[in-house]
Write a structure and sequence with these properties.
The structure holds two protein chains of two kinds. Chain A is elongated and about 65 Å long. In chain A, helix 8 packs across helix 9. Chain A is built from nine helices and no strands. By secondary structure, chain B is an all-alpha fold. In chain B, 76% of the residues lie in helices and 0% in strands. Chain B is built from five helices and no strands. The chains are: A mainly alpha, B mainly alpha.
């Protein structure tokens, strides 16, 4: 029988660092999935995930076992991703004049028939990634968690450490920010 | 083209295409090899380290206060003033003043 998370954590805390490996194996896919929502380059993703695991190892003593380990780890992951976004705030003010051909085509199709434009196309994904990259870190975080991952406000508050009211305020502002960016995208293309 | 419509469509596209959860080859080994270099948080060790660091400034402050106290008492002695007498004179100053004015 495989040891439980609690047993593995207890062993790590007793000094048996090797017991950390099964935890890394078990939860890395989830952590990679989360990190890839905030970083595009694979080397950046790997660095974020590595930082999350090193922090988890360092702070393992603060895990009290009241909630599942996965919840604690996801809180750590989301906060590390947020720190990454804040540390890598590039020049977010860019124009949409350099769209690729598939992105251009997708926008044309959307303009001609909004309902007919395919949601599962790579071009649509690239366009939303471009738009998200131009959002402020807090706005990007809240749009990702609330709109894309469909998480409830209370859960977002727990993950980010923000209050419920702050999540709501940031969600309201983030939607406005995203709409402005998309309006600029349409303007850059058709004007 | 309505931005709100475009927003809904692109959010739906992001939902439809969740990022991959693939883990690079031997990633666990990379983490495990780095764990050896990571100091595990030990509250008692941190506390004792902080105490040891604070010891030197505390000794320095104690020495400074000792020197200052010794200097102050020697200068008091040289002025041949008795603290108890000065205190008594200060406390009884108002009474002495009243007696003087009555005379």
């Amino acid at each position: 029988m495989e040891p439980t998370d609690a047993e593995l954590i207890a062993e790590v805390l007793q000094g048996k660092a090797a017991s950390f490996e099964p935890l890394v194996k078990k939860y890395s896919p989830r952590i990679f999935g989360t990190a890839r929502r905030y970083a595009r380059r694979e080397d950046e993703v790997a660095d974020i995930v590595q930082e999350i695991w090193l922090k988890a190892f360092q702070k393992l003593a603060s895990f009290r076992g009241e909630a599942p380990f996965e919840h604690w780890l996801m809180r750590l992951a989301v906060r590390t991703c947020y720190d990454f976004l804040r540390a890598h705030q590039r020049n977010r003010e860019s124009s949409f004049t350099d769209l690729t051909e598939p992105e251009d085509d997708w926008l044309d199709r959307f303009a001609a028939d909004p309902a007919g434009a395919p949601e599962d196309s790579a071009a649509a994904k690239q366009l939303i990634d471009r738009a998200l990259e131009q959002l402020s870190p807090a706005a990007r975080m809240v749009i990702t968690l609330l709109e894309i991952e469909d998480r409830p406000v209370k859960e977002i508050a727990e993950l980010t450490g923000w209050s419920v009211a702050l999540v709501k305020v940031r969600a309201f502002r983030a939607r406005g920010e995203l709409r402005k960016i998309l309006a600029r995208m349409a303007q850059d293309k058709y004007l | 083209m309505k931005p709100s419509q475009l927003e809904r469509k692109l959010i739906a596209a992001a939902k439809a295409q969740a990022p991959s959860d693939a883990v690079p080859y031997a990633f666990e080994q990379r983490i495990m090899s780095r764990l050896g270099k990571v100091p595990v948080a030990d509250l008692w060790a941190d506390w004792s380290r902080a105490l040891w660091r604070a010891a030197a400034p505390c000794v320095a402050v104690a020495i400074c206060l000792g020197v200052w106290n010794a200097y102050a008492s020697s200068s008091r002695n040289s002025a041949s003033t008795d603290l108890s007498q000065e205190l008594e004179r200060t406390v009884l100053a108002s009474v002495a003043l009243d007696t003087e004015t009555l005379q």
